[in-house]
UniProtKB/TrEMBL annotation:
GO terms for biological process: regulation of transcription by RNA polymerase II. The keyword Repressor does not apply. Belongs to the cyclin family. InterPro entries: Cyclin-like_dom (IPR013763), Cyclin-like_sf (IPR036915), Cyclin/Ssn8 (IPR043198), Cyclin_N (IPR006671). It comes from the Eukaryota. GO terms for molecular function: cyclin-dependent protein serine/threonine kinase regulator activity. This is Cyclin-like protein. It comes from Basidiobolus meristosporus CBS 931.73.
Amino acid sequence: MELNDWTFTQDDLAHTPSIRDGSSWEKEQRLRQKGISFIVKIGHSLQLLPTTIYAAGLYFHRFYMRQSFRVYHQYDLAGTSLFVAIKEEEDFNSYYPEEIARRLSRLFQECTLVSLKSNDRHKVENLTENIRRWKETIYYHEEILLETLCFDLHLDLPHKYLFEALKRCGATQKHSLLATRIVSDFIRSPLCLLYSSKVLAGVAISQSCHLLQHPLTDRQTSKPWREVLGLEPKLIQEAAETSSLITL
């Protein structure tokens, strides 16, 4: 893999820094799941865009292809990934400075609350102190995350290809919502590291068509949706089968 080539193989997933440090593949996947669940839960609480949540998850997954869970805790990097994704993906140009500060402050607060276990709820009494610690944790890990990703924060998200194909095929709102939910859920597994965003968009459309028993075709040319994306059926099938094998 080249320095900034973010497409990996299953062999790469079997030889990550965490596994080289002695973790099993299963344990690493559990830690990835915990981190992504942390991101998704906070993202929903903050009402972030699906693309922002996906971006945070992608930063998180990529980070642990170059760093070990034994060195960096999953929640620390999950919160930091959200912090960076919010600044990169949310349209801050439309916000006043105080709104930006409020949103980031809410992130620190949500990280504090979500990270507390049920038997640690008494620590809410020290909420201000815990928020301060989370703020310091995220600021500290932000530079580490950026350096590990080589400051390569530009993401080619699957949502772009998905929305384009759904629009050209005149998909119903129900179909669009289902396909969007499917593609957003791909961040819950390392599938996003194995295939391009265009392929993942194709898998989401394929699965939504199957579930709704409703094929999609280009409204102008009547060609199958796969041709809209320029994808081979074999590649979509391969990615779908891989998804069923590695889903966390």
